[in-house]
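Bug report (template v2)

What were you trying to do?
Predict the complex of my protein with glycine.

What happened?
Run completed; filing so the output is reviewed.

Input:
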Amino acid sequence: MKVLLIGSGGREHALFWKLSQSPLLTRLDVFPGNGGFPSDVIVNEPGLSITDTDRIVSFVKKNRYDFVFVGPEQPLVDGLVDSLELVCPVFGPTYRAAALEGSKAFSKSFMEQYGIPTAKAKTFIDVEQAVAYAKTRSLPVVVKADGLAAGKGVTVAVSHTEAEEAIRDCLERNRFGESGSKVVIEDFLKGVEASVFALCDGERALPFIAAKDHKRAFDGDEGPNTGGMGAFAPVDFMTDDVMERVQNDILDRVIAGMNHRGTPYRGLLYAGLMIDNGIPSVVEFNVRFGDPETQPLLLLLDEDLLELSVQAATGRLPNRKLKFKNGAALTIVLAAEGYPGDYSKNILLKEIDSYRGDAIIFHAGTKRDGEVLVSNGGRILNFTASGETLSMAREKAYAAIQAIRIPQTFYRSDIARSIR
Ligand code: AMP
Ligand code: GLY
């Protein structure tokens, strides 16, 4: 099977690592990729861009790929799958199903219609009505830009003034462009957060074991929100009982609701959850694998991911649970100094290629300048390891990140320790 993987992050490098193990594979290419991929698998087609659907479709046709795996949200929300599906099977939801991530207003009304537990919310396009409504809610109150905003569109406001500012940023000052043309004002959910990913084939949702990421930049869950500074699995408070509720009250209802709307959900469904006293509610849905939770989860998945992905894309997932190895895994993100604000660029990463240890170093924001490996983003590398226990996995990953000292970078020293 000749496969094309689309994306360029740590998630895609981990997906590449796992998909490469499949006996079904004859060739796996990636576009656009990053500095971690062998150069002969990176598609080098002048003018190709992941947001240019027409060119991607003709490229896939011309090169006779048998299967395409779409990693990131933007092309999914833009409807790449709808066009590609006419050429070959594709992993990922169609345009209308991907609106679960592409529009928080849609996602909230979908959850309300199909009885999926989530915080009470209202959507507004008018500033004054939004501000007036926010003032009636108790604090903290959560203000969200409707569309994709690279993790920056959410404000957990601790005062009504802060909520008003967040509303005006979206609706008046166009801080998020088109993504902020509507705002969702949501009640605050208390509890502990976890992520559950499920492979979906339109008829069923097969969950991964739960994972948890660390969203804040600094130790002790301090500092600004980021795309994720590390992640681990499994998560002890995600018991069988909680997972059964996730299956029945959330995943199965998404599958049923999407079918009822005539837009079957295929691909990966990411449920960002808040668990309060064993009861899960949805904080958000994403329509792709999470980054960096994917990295530890794929170390534990005891299955052929390519086979499962094709089954998900073609409505043929098996009627059984997914298999996972015993033990635990985690990943530590090495980030550029200053991230998630303005950060150092083009940091030299010369020690990475010669690393030969127990951890796996997935590349996220890296590129090759000729032979030289340099950083190319805020989140640079993911030091990932598994072990019999979480603390054994943690020891391996920290041994690797501590052995390779890279100036102008930082990482959290409490991954899988500080849990909020
Ligand atoms: P989101 O992009 O929707 O995942 O939001 C980013 C982060 O904001 C989440 O991971 C939560 O930590 C927090 N958050 C979002 N919505 C809520 C909510 N309704 N209650 C509490 N925290 C929230
Ligand atoms: N880890 C959070 C995300 O992928 O959205």
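What did the reviewer find?
Residues 213, 228, 286, 290-291, 293 surround glycine (ligand 2) (CB under 6 Å). The two ends are 43 Å apart (CA to CA).
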